[in-house]
Amino acid sequence: MLDFHFNPTRGMLDNLLKRNSENDDAIRESVHEIMEDVRERGDAALYDYALRFDSSELSSLFVSEDELCQAESLISPVLKSAIDTAAANIRAFHEAQLPHGECVETMDGVTCSRIIRPISKPGLYVPGGSAPLFSTVLMLAIPASVAGCEDIMLATPAKNGVISPAILYAARKAGVERILKVGGAQAIAAFAYGTESVEKRNKIFGPGNRYVSFAKMEASRTVSIDMLAGPSEVMVLSDKDSNPLFIATDLLSQAEHGPDSQAIMVFIGSKEDAERKRDAVVRDVKRLLESLPRSEFMRKSLEHSRILAFSTEDDAIYAVNEYAPEHLIINTSEPERLLEKVECAGSVFLGPYSPESAGDYASGTNHTLPTSGFAKSSSGVSVDSFIKKITVQRLSREGAIGISQTVMEMAEAESLYAHREAMRVRTC
């Protein structure tokens, strides 16, 4: 549990920073079969898979208006208030992201601009396995609503025909009315290909298990997706002043996501300080594991989690940027200074009082983030994920004359003579 390594070489880091992986050939084949079945049989396949995988003998593929209305009365006032607060914070942060198109005159008579348009018909996937993730409803549906998307559809599995009322309440709070009672690869297939009842979506969003991830990968040949999300992960950057209990709870809250999640603690300081901090953190982890209900998941996750310690700040930051964590907690004496050196992370949590759970639920940032090192090149879900930016240009006759020689010379050099002619006939 939480293997300890002090000053590993950069060559060693390649192995120490590897994500947990499994042979997924069987899953990939199963996903392909499910998706082809949905493509061919449509609604009938969705009904069959709901019964087979979720014990749901559905009379309708969609949540009824009565079910949506009843959801509010089925959750406690305390939870309702928590969802309301989280929704308000998430909406405030995402409304601040709304972009405005640019307009530039690049030369006399030549104007270039961009216009912003929402993506219509997005498909939002929300897992509903061991822990129905109503928070993900807020994280996907609110930015979609803020962006101005029309015909938002959400899919989540109904267990024994029932969807968690918290998911339904969050959906209504976020402005979603169409909820498909289907989960797994079959839901992604319905979004990607369409069925008699499900109109094909223009982009698919949302996290899920390996089946969902492989389904999104296959769907990406047909429709846009937000990202390929693997198992969740956290990296906690710490020093001798960090509270070991805070670190322990951050590692465990990540491990709680599932047995394939990964939690890595990175320590900056001397070997003696690192060993003391390791001992304190491991002691708190073991103590907390005895009382937490999902300890079976957490123990399996901690088997491929670890503690890395570095005597220099530069080596520690190298490890952070090389791993590119989905979640990065900087729990050190000078977190803002270290943040300046961070180049690759999905979402960053600064200081001792900023646990990952704040961002997972209610601070306002989005928790749908790049995993598996994709934070080196991509960002988490935001309002930008739900919009298109269309370039526009307008040339006056004078502008066309002014740019014509440049265009014609370049077109001729590329042997594209129709391009040259299109410019010439306007300016001769």
Polypeptide structure, described:
With 428 residues, the protein is of the alpha/beta class. The protein has three domains: 3-20 and 231-364, Nitrogenase molybdenum iron protein domain (Rossmann fold), CATH 3.40.50; 25-225, Rossmann fold; 396-427, no CATH class. 46% of the residues lie in helices and 16% in strands. It has 17 helices and 14 strands. The strands form three sheets. The protein has a six-stranded parallel sheet. It has a five-stranded parallel sheet with strand order 6-5-4-7-8, sandwiched between helices. Helix 4 packs across helix 7 (165-174), helix 6 (134-147) runs parallel beside helix 7 and helix 10 (244-255) packs across helix 12. The longest helix is centred in the N-terminal third of the chain and has 19 residues, at 77-95. The chain starts with a strand and ends with a helix. The relative contact order is 0.15. The mean pLDDT is 96.
CATH architecture grouping of the largest domain: 3-Layer(aba) Sandwich
Strands, total number: 14
Q: Number of folding domains?
A: 3
Taking strands numbered 1, 2, ... along the chain, how are they ordered across the largest sheet?
Answer: 1-11-10-9-12-13
Shape: globular
The biggest beta sheet is recorded as: 6 strands, parallel
Looking at the structure, the CATH topology of the largest domain is Rossmann fold
Q: Low-confidence stretches at least 5 residues in length (pLDDT < 50)?
A: none
CATH class of the largest domain: Alpha Beta
